[in-house]
Design brief:
Radius of gyration: 20 Å
Number of helices: 3
Structural class: alpha+beta
Helix content: 10-25%
Number of strands: 9
Length: 173
């Protein structure tokens, strides 16, 4: 019994340095991360809530033509939200001109995006989708600007822009 108590105490001591290495900000970020509750809603139920073109992108994983989105030219301060469920996905400060023809961002809002492997073009890509409704947004690539080196390439039809001066709409489900 004393040996077990000793070993348990030792295991706690070995983990202690890991907590000391974390900065206060890192601990605060871990505590404040919100877990998005996925909606249990079939894709067909979104048909009446989004345009036919947006539905094809969001729930059939199609891609709009490059250069076709008005959001390519959106440079105001604000939030980009999912066109289906209105979950905030990207802050305007992380939008940049990638030259790809689609709205691109250096990072999403933490916790708002889910990812999965995509082999549709034979080679592996990382697809991302809204963490709440599962709507397809685009693909993330490792050719973005520093410091993260990521390009979150988004379909404009899968997003709506809300200027900083406007109130975010209520989440819909």
């Amino acid at each position: 019994m004393k040996r077990r108590t000793f070993l348990q105490g030792c295991s706690g001591i070995t983990v202690l340095p890991l907590f000391l290495l974390l900065s206060t900000q890192a601990v605060a970020n871990l505590i404040n991360q919100t877990v998005i509750e996925p909606l249990n809603k079939p894709h067909k139920a979104w048909r009446g809530l989004v345009s036919a073109e947006a539905y094809r992108v969001l729930f059939e994983e199609n891609t709009e033509e490059p250069g076709s989105s008005e959001l390519n030219y959106e440079h105001r301060e604000g939030i980009f939200i999912c066109a289906a469920c209105y979950l905030p996905l990207f802050e305007s400060q992380y939008k940049y001109e990638s030259g790809s023809g689609w709205p691109s961002f250096t990072q999403p809002i933490p916790g708002s995006i889910g990812t999965k492997p995509d082999f549709q073009l034979i080679f592996l890509r990382t697809e991302y989708h809204c963490a709440r409704c599962g709507g397809h947004q685009g693909h993330v690539f490792k050719d973005g600007p520093p410091p993260r080196g990521e390009r979150w390439c988004n379909n404009g039809l899968a997003l709506k822009f809300v200027p900083k001066t406007d109130q975010l709409p209520a989440l819909r489900g």
